Amino acid sequence: MRVKKVINNSILSVIDEKGNEMIVTGKGIGFKRKTGEFVDETLVEKVYHMEDKAEQRRLRELVAQIPLEHLKFTEACIEEIKSQIRQPLNESLLITLADHISFAIQRKKQGVEFNNPLSDAIVCYYPTEYQLGKRCLQAIEREYGVRLNEDEAAFIALHIVNAELNTDMSQMHDMTRLMDGCVRVTEFYYRKQFDRDSLDFNRFTVHLRYLVQRLYQGAMMEDKAEERDEMFRELIRRNCKEHYACAERIASYIATNFDKTISEEEKIYLTIHLKRLNMNEDE
Q: Is 20 part of a structural domain of the chain?
């Protein structure tokens, strides 16, 4: 490995024999090193490599700006997160989460804390990720003696969901607002508030989560042309008129506020979930 850039005495950006850029860390590894020199590999303690070149550049910039211990701490947090989530996580999570955690710790020490306006929605729609966010907060307090408010757990949860869905954070905020809006439309339509802790409500929000994911990834369920499929759709529309009308209200809300269209097939399956939700609620 040859030195590409000396970041500090403990961190180097290097190029391996295949031309891949990596970040290597180790005590004294960058001391008096110069670009182009070979790296003393006996001093290497940790190697960080991103498959995406743009992400590798972001990582190089990040390690120059935050304490190395924050990067190592975040890496340990991500290993815990991976043990609890089956879905693969985008490699960029290390960068975005380390940046967030480091900044949050620094802000807290300066007496500055941010509120998360989507906190309640995040707790409701991403409960697993929110609990993992709370674990991260507990680990931060143990490691650094810094107690962050629970809104930070919601911020961390969004970073995790973002890594699950391979989206960016601005899109993740839009998706969460869309889900929250759909629930509000639903409760306004039926004129009641659903039990957020119930299994049925959880099933409904899981369906909404994947509906929104398909919507943003351009992978809507397509309207099948076979006669039997149209007969099935017509059967649902006729027998579940009230719930289909609610599904149409939701579709209209999405179109008006987010300029996105859901297919008839999606509306039919949404109708089925709305019927199931209300049937069990009424019981």
A: yes
User: For residue 89, is it within any domain?
Assistant: yes
What SS3 state is found at 21? strand
In 3D space, the residue among 96, 157, 76 whose CA is nearest the CA of residue 121 turns out to be: 157
Does residue 158 lie within any of the structural domains?
Answer: yes
| Alpha-carbon gap, residue 180 to 205, rounded angstroms | 9
3-state helix, strand, coil in the chain (%, to 5): 65, 5, 30
Q: Are residues 45 and 109 in the same domain?
A: no
Q: How far is CA 283 from the centre of its chain?
A: 35
Give the whole-angstrom CA distance, residue 81 versus residue 14: 29
Task: For residues 114 and 156, give the distance between their C-alpha atoms in angstroms, rounded to a whole number.
Answer: 13
Q: What is the mean pLDDT of the segment spanning 85-113? A: 91
What pLDDT band is residue 283 in, cutting at 50, 70 and 90?
very low
Which pTM does this prediction carry? 0.81
Q: Alpha-carbon distance 251 to 266, whole Å? A: 9
Question: What is the rounded distance in angstroms from the CA atom of residue 97 to the CA atom of residue 232?
Answer: 45
Task: Please classify residue 5 by burial: count the beta carbons closer than 10 Å to its beta carbon, then call 0-12 exposed, 13-18 middle and 19+ buried.
Answer: middle
